Sequence to fold (417 residues):
Amino acid sequence: MINENRRKIWSHPWSYRGGTIAAVAILLLGFALQLSSGGMILRMAGFPWNLLSGLVFLVILISAYYLLKHTPVIKGLGSVKAALPAILVFTFLILLMGFVKQDVPPKNMLSKLFGLTHLVKTWPFILINLYLMILLGIITMKRLTPFNLKNAGFFLNHFGLFLVLFSTALGSSDMQRLTMNCYENQTEWRAVDTSGKTIELPIAIELLNFNIAEFRPKVTIINNQTGQVVLNKGKNQFEMLDRNSLDLYEYHIEVEQFLETSGKVGEAYFQVNEPGSAPSAKVKVTNSEDRSEISGWICSGSFAHQPEALKLNETHSLVMLPAEPRKFSSGLNIQTKSGKNVTTTIEVNRPYKIDGWTIYQLSYNTEMGRWSNLSVLELVRDPWLPVVYFGIFLMMAGAGFLFITGKPKNGGIEHVA
Fold:
């Protein structure tokens, strides 16, 4: 009976049971290898060894297919019964990456041993990715003989997906994601990778200027005894000083004067524009319950000035929070070893590309705020990205082709099983 069940599972055509057993077994094998290695993070060798290993994989895959294509194993691997469970297991790992934050130090031993915070660089992900590439390769080659227009859309879809998986697997070792600290009027050509190693780059960047546009600061009411924000219906309440009057809890606040950058002289604030000057406002606060009034200044403070709150009574005080950045940008002069010299401005979601590098605006000195003379840049280089884009283009072309020509008869993977 056991032999008969095995024969039914692994004989052609494969059943969903057989495909599921194969995919889950590969996943469990991956986690077992990861556990036995003590949670080691895997890194593929960079160029040219990754390219060489990719070519060897293709030669073995193509040779195995054409030599063994009539065997039950190859026929089974080229069926939907094998592909669908593999896709579901791969999707499970992708979802796991969404639930567990990646590329951060593990919080516990379990996360470390199973590599949950670095899943892309673990045995389970690599083995499932390899298995899925084998399936896609076999399925794609089946549609090459004979090749006709009816199969073109199917071929483009599957070959495009194969290229995406193939190039991302090999290109992970060549991708560089670096952080560079640039100070105003200084030229920097060194950056730091995720492990803290300093890398000298073929790009030199001079920070010409750094600019921040801020929102109006927010105000809230705090408890004088605890220093905590007073809750309103169980929630914190903040109001932005973007209008002349507003209400907070039982208090009505009128803004008599607002200064975007100011300094304190005596008991009042005056408009100044020097490093460390902070937003301030003169307000009149009316208690809606007892109709009492109080006037005074509030200030968010900065690295150069202490914040100032307005004490409303023995219980509550009005405070101004530091202004939040609305937009920040860096004016850069970029020079490359190839002889390029470019002056440009970058900001969040508006990077600049040069010689294969993409330069992003990442951060700044938050303690100094708008007076920061430091701009933190992120430099990303991914030489395999054009191959990924080409694979995505093939998938889109295949989808468009199928939309125009219609679904092949007995279409999809079932037709080639």
